[in-house]
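[Discussion] Sanity-checking designs against the backbone

I'm trying to build intuition for which residues belong where. Below is a structure token string of 165 positions. I'd appreciate it if someone posts a full sequence so I can compare it with mine line by line.
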């Protein structure tokens, strides 16, 4: 490519977003740029200095529908995906772990005294947790909290939906 470099060719070919202009170190900026190329649909990426045989093999692979990346690029891609594994969202992320424990016990039908004993908390502390939970979930009472919790899969089987019958 005597007239353009790989970046310009990729931008022209894919009509992708402009290069990253952040304040990250060069190696991080380059790594993110490479990952953006892959996300934009690049099916091959070799670093400068790739040998003639490697270049020919890559062109043949990409034209036949395969994807090919140099070893360092493949490692960056693998590192990215291992660090960005999807996780299941926990219901009610606004609740602390302790508040979630209290809500679970409420949804299981336990009263304040049972929650006090099980979690070794004072009656006032349990009442404070319950008040905070109601506020964060925007529910008016224990029954609404139980319904919300069970619909989110907390504390037992989800409550039946009457409109489905």
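Best answer:
Here's mine. Compare freely.
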């Amino acid at each position: 490519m005597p007239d353009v470099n790989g970046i310009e060719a990729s931008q022209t070919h894919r009509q992708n977003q402009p290069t990253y202009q952040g304040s990250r170190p060069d190696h991080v900026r380059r790594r993110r740029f490479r990952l953006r190329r892959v996300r934009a649909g690049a099916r091959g990426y070799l670093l400068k200095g790739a040998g003639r045989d490697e270049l020919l093999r890559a062109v043949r692979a990409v034209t036949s529908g395969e994807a090919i990346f140099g070893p360092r690029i493949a490692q960056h891609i693998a590192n990215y995906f291992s660090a960005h594994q999807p996780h299941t969202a926990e219901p009610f992320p606004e609740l602390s772990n302790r508040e979630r424990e209290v809500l679970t016990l409420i949804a299981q039908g336990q009263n304040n005294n049972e929650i006090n004993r099980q979690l070794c908390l004072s009656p006032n502390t349990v009442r404070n947790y319950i008040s905070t939970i109601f506020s964060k979930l925007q529910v008016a009472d224990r029954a609404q909290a139980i319904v919300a919790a069970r619909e989110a899969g907390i504390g037992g089987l989800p409550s039946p939906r009457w409109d489905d019958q």
